[in-house]
Design brief:
Blueprint: H1 4-19, H2 28-35, H3 39-51, E1 56-58, E2 64-66, H4 69-72, H5 76-84, H6 87-90, H7 108-124, H8 131-135
Antiparallel strand pairs: 1-2
Helix pairs in contact: 1-2, 1-3, 1-5
InterPro entries: Tscrpt_reg_Rrf2, WH-like_DNA-bd_sf, WH_DNA-bd_sf
Organism: Soonwooa buanensis
Pfam family, one: Rrf2
Length: 143
């Protein structure tokens, strides 16, 4: 559903949140291992997210990545839009350029409900919302 880049970005941000909840920071190697992603790929993604203010980083011996309160309250929808654009929330299920209410594709009327539900769900979910589930092992980022 999401691009690999978007999937890794979401997983990384959630993982960083869990691992730094007590005020620490976490490095690229640990993030890559924790979410089962290629280190080089996640480094590029996090560099981009850091530049755009979705994650914070610090250099030095106690450096690494962490999220501030503003980042913790960002919705998953914001991350998806930043990484993949908003086509998933507004595009045609069949990829048609001219699909609309007045010129619908064969699945338009059914898909618009799914699309709207997905957007509402991702808007309601904040990056910081998953720590308790992960800590209680009710949800997982890696298997």
């Amino acid at each position: 559903m999401f691009s690999k880049t978007c999937e890794y970005a979401l997983r990384a941000l959630i993982y960083i949140t869990q691992q730094t909840k007590d005020g620490g920071r976490i490095g690229i190697k640990d993030i890559a291992a924790g979410i089962d992603s290629p280190e080089y790929f996640i480094a590029k993604i996090l560099q981009d997210l850091s530049r755009k203010g979705f994650v914070q980083s610090a250099k030095g011996p106690t450096g690494g990545f962490y999220l501030d309160n503003i980042s913790l309250n960002r919705s998953l929808a914001e991350i998806v839009k930043e990484m993949d654009g908003d086509k998933i929330f507004s595009g045609c299920a069949l990829g048609l350029k001219e699909c609309s209410e007045t010129h619908p594709c064969p699945v338009h009327n059914e898909f618009k409900h799914i699309r709207n539900n997905l957007q509402n769900m991702l808007n309601d979910m904040k990056i910081g919302d998953f720590v308790d589930q992960l800590d209680a092992q009710e949800a997982f980022l890696k298997r």
